[in-house]
Amino acid sequence: MPDIALLAGGTGTPKLLAGVRRLLDPTRVAVVGNTGDDVELGGHLVCPDLDTVLFDGAGVLDRERWWGIAGDTTATHDRLQELAADVGLEPGPRYLPSEAQTEGRRIARHRRFSGVAEFMEIGDRDRAVHLTRTGLLDEGHTLTEVTRTLADAFGLDVSLLPMSDDPVATLVHTDEGPMHFQAFWVARRGEPSVEGVEFRGAAEATTTPAVREALSAPVVVGPSNPVTSVGPMVALDGIREALDATPVVAVSPFVGREAFSGPAPDLMRGTSREPSTAGVAAAYPWADAFVLDEADPTELDRPVVRTDTRIDGPTDAERVTRAALDALAGAGAEVR
User: Which domains does the chain possess?
Assistant: First the structure.
């Protein structure tokens, strides 16, 4: 069992990991990554939240975008755009037919896109990771096994675990119809009005023994999007129960009603949640304590540790991590 586990989605928790590495032995840290954002694009599986942790831990993450590999070339991506333009094909997200979403390869499930004029920019070295991942999955390995292999290749010091080996797709229901989260956020920049969020496949997906073991340790939830980063994990059978049974501290991604970044406010409103720290607390009934910004006026019914929660670098991350560890200690969990 690790000394501590983190739930990771988006950029909030990966940013926090810089502080965790400064204060704790990273080899005793488990990171459970959201896979609801994963897409099968042009035949290869892209796992954005897992890869952010993977690339950041290896020191190769593009920290300007918090996506992809720094300094990567995009020759293949650029040529895909040129070819589509040359033959008059429309750019943008191109879902494969509905029957293709559930038939054939096991990694499918309502997240399959054509590679024609791919709507997500995939760097050339980044693409090699996705091709390797998909090839190993096709050879019969689980996503957990494949993630461990990639982590070894990149020299990752923490234990990185996908939330499940089964496919789950985060679908955003909008005034323009349902669309995968990546189509909503990357292609449409969050412009459609949100009417709901669905974690398709979550009812059939199961957690892995590795995740269940990790979540028997004290848990920190970083300042990630409560709906599309943390939501898919909590929707899985077994994770909510694990969080109920262990000390959990959550770092709010809001300061009062102001979010640090991303589409969290619109997604929370679209799922009938108040877009605020109070709304996060209501969405996290399993959290025993919270870390809030010192400027956050919210009063909660659970213990709170306050600090400056903005994370712009390792020093900030260390400060927020100290606050999270203090909050865990107040919840009865001493992490060394």
Answer: 4-330 (3.40.50.10680)
What are the angstrom distances between the C-alpha of 12 and each of 49, 86, 166, 317, 335? Answer: 10, 40, 24, 10, 21
Q: Confirm if 233 and 205 have CB atoms less than 8 A apart.
A: no
What does pTM read for this prediction?
A: 0.95
If we measure between CA atoms, which residue out of 169, 187, 183, 151 comes closest to residue 52?
A: 151
Write out the two tokens for 68. 């992809």
The whole-angstrom separation of Cα 172 and Cα 271 is: 10
Using the 8-state DSSP alphabet, how is residue 28 labeled?
G
CB 160 within 8 A of CB 50: yes
Q: Within a 13 Å sphere around the CA of 114, how many CA atoms are in the beta-carbon half?
A: 15
Q: Are 194 and 173 in contact (CB under 8 A)?
A: yes
Average pLDDT over residues 33-52: 96
Q: Which amino acid is at 6?
A: L
Q: Are 315 and 291 in contact (CB under 8 A)?
A: no
Tell me the average pLDDT across 73-78: 96
Distance CA 162, CA 146 (A): 10
* pLDDT score of 37 more than 90: yes
Residue at token pair 């940013």: 15
How far, in Å, CA of 230 to CA of 326, rounded?
22
pLDDT at 278 over 90: yes
Residue 164 and residue 330: Cα distance in Å, rounded?
30
Least confident segment among 6-10, 221-225, 329-333? 329-333
pLDDT of residue 105: 78
Which secondary-structure segment (H or E) carries 22? helix 12-23
3-class DSSP assignment, residue 216: coil
For the chain, give the percent of residues with pLDDT over 90.
87
Give CA 60 to chain center in angstroms.
18
Supply the DSSP string of 284-333, one letter for each residue: -TT-SEEEEETT-----SS-EEEE----SSHHHHHHHHHHHHHHHHHTT-
For residue 269, how many other CB atoms are within 10 A of its CB? 15
Q: What are phi and psi of 269, to 5 degrees?
A: -60, -40
